[in-house]
Structure to design on (419 residues):
């Protein structure tokens, strides 16, 4: 809050498409999709209409012992998107809760299966899985974790397959396989006490858009099978077409045991998350004894308005063939961003689907803040991430950004790099 003495809050009056507007007539291009949640622009006509209709039908009803059309339709559509391999949905209201649910469910599965010693979790170095106590315990971003460390349960971080860490001459896939050998070494020793490995597939977002080769996921799946460890895919950021396929894990042609979704699920309209899992996990909880059932009570689970927004979001994917359309679109943005990639201050320019990122050489210790502020003066909403890997600027625009807006985004970013 103190920093806002020099960088005042911007009151948003309204928003449309990729733009936020303040009360003084200024506008800001939402190039980070309002923290990675918005998919089809602000004030999307299709989602607005669906929500208006839902508001007049049913806003919310408890889901314990009851059900309703939006939650059933959403669950069936999501199941289909996993090839019906992850056909069981448990709803929460935010990403961190989804991670808590997946961790608890994995632990409880092993307990119900006569393996109560499988209580530990493994995540990747630099991973981000949310900031409630359980989710924070598998997160590995020092800024968010260090202060609260005394409250957290221990977990293990294994080498990240982030290709920026590769040796000279080592390809991203070679490096991914090397990182997978580190995972193997850990599981070989600790599988008897390990419940699950949790990963952000293909892109580790909050650590600074670390991108890695799908070969890591192929190996991780094999190792988890070999050592009876669950694979939790945290696709809270990477899901819903962000990486070029509907789910990022599709690019490794694997299925996780648990799939966590949130952020883009409602098109950026309402808080909602879901954990999807397999028949095998479901079956381990199906019992007369309540204590063998999954215990996680949650007031707003399956909220009808949020589920309806999510159904409307999936309808847009279907109607606009969005995953295919995004491939062309991604190529156009990459083309426009080439001039940034060539800039002498820019390192590690990279792209996965609808995410672009690069490091900027700077001696400014407050680079992230200052760049954010300078970007605002050029009508851009950008939120760089500073980490041990460098000062990362990234673009994660809504899928409706048009050619003129792309040009504005890359041209003005270039201006910011050349003061
Ligand atoms: C944002 C995020 C979360 C946490 O979601 P919240 O809704 O902010 O709690 C968890 N995992 C990943 C990969 C995320 O990007």
């Amino acid at each position: 809050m103190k920093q806002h003495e020099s960088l005042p809050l911007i009151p948003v009056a309204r928003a449309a498409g990729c733009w936020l507007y303040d009360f003084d007539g200024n506008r800001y291009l939402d190039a980070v999709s309002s923290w990675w949640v918005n998919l089809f622009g602000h004030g999307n006509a299709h989602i607005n209409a669906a929500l208006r209709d839902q508001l007049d039908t049913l806003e919310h009803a408890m889901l314990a012992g009851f059900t309703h059309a939006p939650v059933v339709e959403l669950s069936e559509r999501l199941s289909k998107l996993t090839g019906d391999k992850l056909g069981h949905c448990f709803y929460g209201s935010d990403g961190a809760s989804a991670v808590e649910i997946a961790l608890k469910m994995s632990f409880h599965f092993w307990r119900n299966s006569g393996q109560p010693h499988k209580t530990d979790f493994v995540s990747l170095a630099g991973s981000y899985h949310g900031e409630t106590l359980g989710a924070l315990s598998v997160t590995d971003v020092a800024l968010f974790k260090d202060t609260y460390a005394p409250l957290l349960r221990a977990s293990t971080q294994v080498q990240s397959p982030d290709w920026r860490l590769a040796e000279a001459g080592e390809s991203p896939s070679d490096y991914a396989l090397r990182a997978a050998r580190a995972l193997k070494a850990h599981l070989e020793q600790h599988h008897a006490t390990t419940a699950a490995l949790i990963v952000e597939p293909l892109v580790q977002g909050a650590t600074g858009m670390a991108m890695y080769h799908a070969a890591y996921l192929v190996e991780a799946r094999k190792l988890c099978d070999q050592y009876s460890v669950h694979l939790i895919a945290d696709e809270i950021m990477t899901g819903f077409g962000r990486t070029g396929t509907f789910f990022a894990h599709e690019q490794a042609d694997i299925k996780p045991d648990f799939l966590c979704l949130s952020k883009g699920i409602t098109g950026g309209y309402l808080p909602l998350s879901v954990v999807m899992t397999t028949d095998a996990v479901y079956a381990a909880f199906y019992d007369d004894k309540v204590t063998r059932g999954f215990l996680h009570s949650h007031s707003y689970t399956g909220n009808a308005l949020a589920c309806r927004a999510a159904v409307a979001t999936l309808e847009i994917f279907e109607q606009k063939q969005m995953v295919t359309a995004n491939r062309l679109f991604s190529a156009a943005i990459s083309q426009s961003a080439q001039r940034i990639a060539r800039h002498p201050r820019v390192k590690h320019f990279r792209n996965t689907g609808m995410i672009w990122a690069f490091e900027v050489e700077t001696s400014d210790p407050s680079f992230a803040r200052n760049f954010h502020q300078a970007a605002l003066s050029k009508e851009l909403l950008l939120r760089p991430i500073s980490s041990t890997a460098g000062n990362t600027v990234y673009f994660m625009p809504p899928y409706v950004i048009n050619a003129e807006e792309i040009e504005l985004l890359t041209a003005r970013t270039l201006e910011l790099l050349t003061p």
Summary: The chain has a mean pLDDT of 97. The CA atoms of residues 18 and 41 lie 5 Å apart. The two ends are 28 Å apart (CA to CA). The first helix runs from residue 33 to 36.
